Structure of ABC transporter permease:
Amino acid sequence: MRPETNLLPVPLLREISTLLAKDFRLEWRQRAALGGLLLYVGSTVFVCFLSFSLRGGQPPAPAWNALFWVILLFAAINAVAKGFMQESPGQRLYYYTLVGPQAIILAKMLYNALLLLGVGLLALFLYTIFLGNPIQDLALFVANLVLGALGFATTLTLVSGIAAKAGGNGATLMAVLGFPVMIPMLLLLIKVSKNALDGLDRGVSQQAIITLLALNVIVAAVSYLLFPFLWRG
């Protein structure tokens, strides 16, 4: 039996930083996957631009908002899906002998959150170029984008681990398990970003933001507690 994380001589934060550095190096070596993700975001935004330009103008704010989050949701699924499923059982066994399962799940969540935040900012930049920028409260929108990246990362990372352990068609299983969990979070994100587009008082979005924060904390805590049992399965 492998000793628990709190008995290891290496602190948890050092394990997380080491795993983060490993993930960034792997992403840099496998730039085709990252390029495909960025190509998906850019081409989808451009197709939306072509569709609305045929109608003679920019999309209305509700359509702009809905399309933005739909693009980001599918980009998140594609980005996070490869986190665990690209690792062989032998690699997972090797990690099991070196670091604790808590460090693995926290490092994956943090890495995916940073990746999705970068993708979200890129999508916002491309949206601004091709489809205009109707946002009246940019600070609230960006804060909501950060919460969305964290929420997508925490939820989909755990689902990706479950799908990788289940074997078979992991991407399909991840989509089936992930969508029911993501829908409530997606509705809250769309609501807050719509308030930012309309320039409403930030107090109107306060309850939704608190709920998003609570969801992120709960999912991260549940992942931290349950992933060791999944890891040993």
Observations:
- Residues 1-9 have pLDDT under 50 and may be disordered.
- The two ends are 13 Å apart (CA to CA).
